[in-house]
What does this fold into?
Amino acid sequence: MNTKFPTIRKCLFPAAGYGTRFLPATKAIPKEMLPVLTKPLLQYGVEEAVAANITTIAIVTGRGKRAIEDHFDISYELEHQIKGTDKEHYLTEIRALITQCTFSYTRQVEMKGLGHAILSGETLIGNEPFAVVLADDLCDDNRNGVLAQMVALYEQYGCSVVAIEEIPKEQTHKYGVIAGEEIEKGLYRVSDMVEKPDPKDAPSNMAIIGRYILTPDIFDILRETKPGKGGEVQITDALLEQAKQGRVLAYKFKGKRFDCGSVDGFVEATNYFYAKGVAE
Ligand code: G1P
It folds into this structure.
């Protein structure tokens, strides 16, 4: 598509967290590698990026995350073992991703929050707009990926975009929550955003889910952002600075989203994708 704004070419995946809610499973395995059926969460995220024509994949990792790099690489021994057997097709999808994408990695040395993780990715992103996917928010879209929907909006408006979903008010303490004016059906110009407010302080029940398009000035803002909720540098606080200038949109995405950062959401996603696979 022709657009007057730079193309979104890169997607950043913050993947340095400890995954404490899934211990002991995440003791030696990164939480992003936990599978829903046979595919790790992170692979679903990368596939969503590719569906949005984004093939430069940047991953912020941490200690104990080497399995991620091995997953997005060829395993010669395995390839050799199954070559010519009826098991070869199991690798078709991941092989295709490895061929289409480039993967680069940087490590977040200290865990100082999502904003800090995104800032750690600056070296891989540089001075261009980019997407961010939190792999534990697993989205299913029936072939029109959530990220692709957001890229289309960026191409129209040229500013940061966050994906939102209405949640029960009592859950606002788990999310970044926005307030804004509806400028098109399901699209809001953000006027306020608060990280994990108590329900009584929440500006609405519209919660940010783990999909963002960010303009690169976010890095300078993040450098100046003081630790907020939980003593961590929050992307929500940095985005509020852009929002004050009318440069953040919130989009009620089309599709389904599962909170795979919680055991309940993970089980729900597993059942959903299993039923879907059986139906196909
Ligand atoms: C992060 C963000 C929060 C957002 C959420 C979406 O929180 O800080 O604003 O609503 O992701 O999943 P986390 O879930 O990492 O605590």
Summary: The mean pLDDT is 94. Residues 114, 134, 137, 175-176, 195, 207-210, 234, 236, 261 surround 1-O-phosphono-alpha-D-glucopyranose (CB under 6 Å). Residues 263-279 form the longest helix (17 residues).
